[in-house]
């Protein structure tokens, strides 16, 4: 149901019309730009061959070929080789990025396609536009609009990334024309993104939109964003509220602040986790959190009830069978497992990515994967009380601001009516 228009919407339209009058050439001027300097769509700009960090590879750490083969299974051209010490990507790589999302320990890395960077990009768009579209280079085939996120393959998004985005935003859709995946040489991509979206939807309880016709895409900025721009501009310009300014930059600053707050929330969650369980194992190995796990844990910390939807597993040790060989600890590249000098095995569920490598390398059969208590995924937040107080203050300030704005608009409306009556 469409929101009812009010006087603020009318004022926004007046300002937008004034900007058009101030710049009569508008888009025509853009069409006169030198073709050599104009934006040209190049699929290669959205791709890249990942770097590999063999230290994080489960197969390399465990020395067992059975421990993991997710990247090998998802690569559509068999471009990945893993030997005893290294992970190598061959020249036949299609740069689809699927290995990044498939690897639970993020042994494959490409900055522009890492989970936190993708979250920030989508969040920036979803906060600004009525719809944010996630699509691939083949589906788009043209230079993207400002609210389109172009990927080498939609399968680049991990389930944890979908989960965090769906909890925070309700205007994210995938744009893929019918049959586009059937003709794609990245043959494993469709199954990968279907599984990731399905898992993200199950965890979050929300759904991803789907568009198959380009004519149905909506590139309008959101009503809330436009109103926020206008109000910010009016506050800074005072009586010159309808004069030319840079409201887009003001709105962008508000969005940037929101992204910054999310980054702070993720970092504070990690610090709280390290304070709660320690940053290192008894063997002085630093626990490692993947970007996808950080996003998931920070979202759960903010809404603890969401932890109940996860059905994750972690290793449990039968001490009567354990020979204290330490193979399980060496097999974990994220150092989620620990075996202290007294022979006590432990695992931190928040760091464990449930790969099961430790179980596979245990020749004594002492380890078994068992369900994790969802409560273990909620990182204690030492600042919860402070944040609750801050949120209450912010809500109060917003209510007061809305009331002041309403009074100002009512006064402006009366002035306009008085002027019309005098005429």
In short:
The chain has 423 residues and is of the alpha/beta class. The protein has helices at 7-22, 27-31, 58-62, 70-74, 98-102, 115-126, 137-140, 159-168, 189-204, 223-237, 247-277, 291-302, 327-330, 357-361, 384-422; strands at 51-52, 80-82, 87-89, 108-109, 132-136, 148-151, 172-175, 209-211, 313-317, 337-339, 345-347, 367-371.
Detailed description of the structure:
The structure is a single chain. The chain is of the alpha/beta class. Among the domains are: 51-109, 2-Layer Sandwich (Alpha-Beta Plaits), CATH 3.30.70; 112-220; 385-423. Helices cover 43% and strands 10% of the residues. It is built from 15 helices and twelve strands. It has helices at residues 7-22, 27-31, 58-62, 70-74, 98-102, 115-126, 137-140, 159-168, 189-204, 223-237, 247-277, 291-302, 327-330, 357-361, 384-422; strands at 51-52, 80-82, 87-89, 108-109, 132-136, 148-151, 172-175, 209-211, 313-317, 337-339, 345-347, 367-371. A four-stranded parallel sheet has the order 6-5-7-8. Strands 1-4 form a two-stranded antiparallel sheet. Helix 7 (137-140) links the parallel strand 5 (132-136) and strand 6 (148-151). Helix 11 packs across helix 12.
